[in-house]
Structure formats: structure tokens, C-alpha cells
């Protein structure tokens, strides 16, 4: 039995499904880019420092494209900067998994691996979207996501099948992040609407591919799949944990302090 914590109600007026769907995907990538960017100059070695920076830039590029397109679909004149820098915490619709703190390197890799294993089938499906702009974004993002998955899964195996200490840390990271993964596969009226029109995809359809990837990598790493059935949800409707507010305060402070600033 899966136990889900799903907050009731909406923190903001209900959004048009096409717009909301693009916001969700854009916010996932924007918040993840910000988290990975926190590793710059702090990576375990120079090569990994550069790799994490490049992956962060990949996610930022996807976020920019998605938020730009979301603004066009909304039709209210908001561009990528307005959507990224002038919304409040309750208006962000990212998965709670994306906002989780970096912790140690194992925790970052567990978070990244779970998202990468989801992004690959997601972008594969969205490459055939009836929204041709979204399809184009997905086709480019898919190429990057496949590399991201190779990178994160290699580290999960390397740490899981490494020393006693690296194994302990990797298992602890997998256990900590697990409860946030189920939110990726819980749909609502937004996903139902975009799936019906061919714009988006039913999230539950992505679960089999994700399960296979996770099972294969955890097995190779000698790690145990958590048996915790609890699923933490709420991010898709703007209910977040304590961490997102701090992240946004750092990310948005320049625009909030000097609105409309141009270099």
C-alpha cells in the first residue's frame, strides 16, 4: 500500500493545463539547475566540478526554453525572467525531489539519478508531443538526459560498490530521497488534460521504464531498494518543504532588490 501525503486545495487560482504543465517541467529544471550550481567550486575534484556545472547549465537551458514557451502560451507578456524571478514560493510547481538540499556528494547523486531515470522516458514521450515547440525542446533535452543518466548511474554504482563508507553513504542517500520519487508518477487534472490532447504524457506510463533503470543500477551497485511506501507530494500544486524558500531567496534576490535590472 502506498501512503501519500497530498495537501488539499490549491494555493493559487487554477491554471490553464497547457500553461501549468510547461511551468511544472520548467520549474523542475530551473530548481535543479540552481541546486547543482551550488556545487561550483565545491566539487570533489576539478573534473567533477566542471561536469556538475555543465549539467546545471543543461538544465538551465531546458528551463529557459520551457519558461519562454510557457509565457507565450499564457499570453500575458511574461517572459522567462518574469516567470523565474518574480513568482513566489507557492507559485512554483516543481517536484519536491528537485529542491532537496545537496547534502554530501552521494545525496546529490541519488537525487540526480532518480530524476535522470525519469527524464529519459519523459523526454522520449514528449518528443512526439502535439505541441511542436515542446516536442523540439524534448528532443534536445533527451540527448542531454541520456548523458546525465550515464553520469549519475556511474557514480551510484561507484559509490555503492566502493568502500564500506561510500556504500553506507550511498545507501543512506537512496533511502533519504526515496520518499520524494513517487510524486513523479502521480497525475492530476493537468496531466489528464494534456495527455488527452497529446501535448503531455500520463505520468504513470513512465513508471515501468523508471523502475527497470533503478532496479538495474541499484542491483549493480549492491544497494537495497527502499521498502518505504510513503510518498511526499504537494510540489505540483505549490506546497513545498522548508528548503525551496531559502533557495529562491538566493536565486531571486538581485531581481527582487533591483526590479528590471539590465546589464
Question: Can you offer a commentary on this structure?
Answer:
This protein has a single domain (3-257), classed as Ferritin, core subunit, four-helix bundle (Ferritin), CATH 1.20.1260. The protein is 63% helix and 2% strand. It contains 10 helices and 2 strands; from the N terminus they run βαααααααααβα. It has helices at 17-37, 46-74, 80-85, 96-99, 105-126, 132-160, 164-178, 189-197, 207-221, 243-257; strands at residues 3-5, 230-232. It has a two-stranded parallel sheet with strand order 1-2. The longest helix is centred in the first third of the chain and has 29 residues, at 46-74. It is globular, with a radius of gyration of 18 Å.
CATH superfamily: Ferritin, core subunit, four-helix bundle
- What percentage of residues falls in helices of 4 or more residues? 55-70%
Q: What is the number of helices?
A: 10
CATH uppermost class? Mainly Alpha
Distance between the termini: 53 Å
Mean pLDDT: 93
Named CATH topology: Ferritin
Integer tally of domains: 1
Structural class: mainly alpha
Largest sheet features: 2 strands, parallel
Beta content = under 5%
Shape call:
globular
Strand order of the largest sheet: 1-2
Please trace the helix and strand order, writing H or E for each element.
EHHHHHHHHHEH
- Annotated CATH architecture: Up-down Bundle
Give the C-alpha Rg.
18 Å
Low-confidence stretches: 5-11
Amino acid at each position: 500500500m502506498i501512503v501519500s501525503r497530498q495537501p488539499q486545495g490549491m494555493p493559487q487560482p487554477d491554471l490553464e493545463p497547457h500553461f501549468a504543465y510547461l511551468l511544472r517541467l520548467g520549474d523542475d529544471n530551473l530548481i535543479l539547475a540552481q541546486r547543482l550550481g551550488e556545487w561550483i567550486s565545491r566539487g570533489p575534484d576539478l573534473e567533477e566540478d566542471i561536469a556538475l556545472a555543465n549539467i546545471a547549465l543543461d538544465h538551465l537551458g531546458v528551463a529557459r526554453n520551457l519558461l519562454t514557451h510557457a509565457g507565450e502560451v499564457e499570453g500575458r507578456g511574461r517572459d522567462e525572467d518574469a516567470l523565474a524571478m518574480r513568482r513566489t514560493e507557492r507559485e512554483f510547481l516543481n517536484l519536491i525531489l528537485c529542491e532537496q538540499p545537496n547534502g554530501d556528494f552521494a545525496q546529490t547523486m541519488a537525487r540526480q539519478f532518480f530524476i535522470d531515470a525519469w527524464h529519459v522516458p519523459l523526454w522520449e514521450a514528449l518528443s512526439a508531443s502535439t505541441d511542436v515547440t515542446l516536442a523540439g525542446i524534448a528532443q534536445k533535452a533527451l540527448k542531454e538526459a541520456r548523458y546525465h543518466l550515464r553520469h549519475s548511474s556511474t557514480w551510484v554504482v561507484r559509490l555503492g560498490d566502493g568502500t564500506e563508507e561510500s556504500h553506507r553513504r550511498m545507501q543512506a542517500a537512496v533511502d533519504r530521497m526515496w520518499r520524494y520519487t513517487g510524486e513523479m508518477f502521480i497525475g492530476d487534472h493537468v496531466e489528464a488534460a494534456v495527455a488527452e490532447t497529446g501535448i503531455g504524457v500520463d505520468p504513470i506510463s513512465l513508471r515501468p521504464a523508471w523502475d527497470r533503470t533503478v532496479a538495474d543500477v541499484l542491483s549493480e551497485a549492491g544497494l537495497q531498494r527502499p521498502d518505504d511506501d510513503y510518498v511526499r507530494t504537494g510540489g505540483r500544486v505549490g506546497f513545498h518543504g522548508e528548503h525551496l524558500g531559502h533557495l529562491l531567496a538566493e536565486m531571486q534576490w538581485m531581481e527582487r532588490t533591483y526590479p528590471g535590472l539590465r546589464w
